[in-house]
Every structure is written in C-alpha cells, then in structure tokens.
Design goal:
- Keywords: Membrane, Transmembrane, Transmembrane helix.
- The chain crosses the membrane at residues 97-116.
- The chain has 2 domains: 3-59, no CATH class; 94-150, no CATH class.
- Helix content is 64%, strand content 0%.
- It is built from 9 helices and no strands.
- It has helices at residues 3-6, 11-19, 28-37, 39-51, 62-78, 96-113, 115-119, 123-128, 135-150.
Length: 152
Amino acid sequence: MNDDRKAVPSVEEWAAYIRGDASVQERAAYMEDLLLENEQALELYMQALELVEAELPVLPRPERFTEMVMTRIGESEAKVVHMEARDDRRRWYEHRLFHYAIAACLTLIFLSAGWFDKLSPGPEHVKKHAGEASFSEELVKVTTGWIDRLKP
C-alpha cells in the first residue's frame, strides 16, 4: 500500500465514489472502512453527498424500499446458524459442594491441631489490659480537649 491510498480522499473522490465511477472502485473497500473510522473523511463524504445530491436518482416508492430492507434483515436473522449446545456439566472439582467439603475438612483439622487457640491471646492478656483505657477513649479525650481549647 502506498501513501496515496492511506490519504483521506478529497471531496471530488468522494463524489466519484458516490456516483460509482470506475476510477475509485479499487479503493471502495478502503473508503468504506475510512468512513467508519475517520471523522474528517465522514465530513468530506457528507459534503460530496450534498454536491451530487441532484444527480442521484430518486426512489419511486421509499416506503416499499424500507419494507424490503426490513424483510431482508428479518431473513438474515432467521439464517443465523446456532452452534451446537456443548455439555455444560461441570467437573467434580468445580462444584460448590466440593469446595464446602474441603473448607469443612480444613476447619476440622485446624480445630483439632489447636491453631485457632493460638490466634487469640487468651484470658491472661485481657486481664493485663483491663485497667488501661482503650485507644478510642484516648482519641475522644484528645479531640474534646482540642475542641474545648477552640471555644472562646
């Protein structure tokens, strides 16, 4: 592909494309893709369409044309080939029940090994800190003291 093909076509080239001239037929696919991707190309196309609007043939019955297009769209939807339904059965290790069973087994193993006992510090730790104020109480005291100093 050369640079000439990659350039945005001029209004005259778009007009030739609209008329269906043979000079631009080799670039027709490129120009159609360009209309979808490039806003400047679309603007030039619209300008060219306004220029050649008088030369274009008028549809004798536009309603009939619309009906024919809608009928063809309906036919194309009817021709859609559905893929074969695949087997949606899950493997045994993908079932929820399998995951729940594994989780229950691990929980029982951890309980019997005493791992959960090691997570909490025990009653001795609670007694040691019973006389101290909690962090939130200290924070409330500091905040109220700060607010009291701001008051006149």
